[in-house]
Write a structure and sequence with these properties.
This protein is mostly beta strands. The chain is built from 1 helix and 5 strands, in the order ββαβββ. It has one domain: Ubiquitin-like (UB roll) (Roll), CATH 3.10.20.30. This is Sulfur carrier protein ThiS.
């Protein structure tokens, strides 16, 4: 299944959930937010939120600084 992640095509190789995608992309366990089709998905829902072929996801990583 192919999805768009930050405007780049990604082939999902595992289950079709946000938590599976996060694991596939080696995202850190904290400091990350994910929007699915322009809707923020709470981390508590990542395991059950399914991704469909062609969906668009935006991954935002927190950055330290001042």
């Amino acid at each position: 299944m192919k999805v768009q992640v930050n405007n780049k095509e990604v082939e999902l190789t595992t289950r079709n959930t946000i938590s599976a995608l996060a694991a596939q992309l080696d995202l850190p366990p904290q400091g990350v937010a994910i929007a699915l089709n322009n809707r923020m998905i709470p981390r508590s829902q990542w395991a059950e939120q399914e991704i469909q072929n062609g969906d668009s996801l935006v991954i935002i990583k927190a950055a330290c600084g001042g």
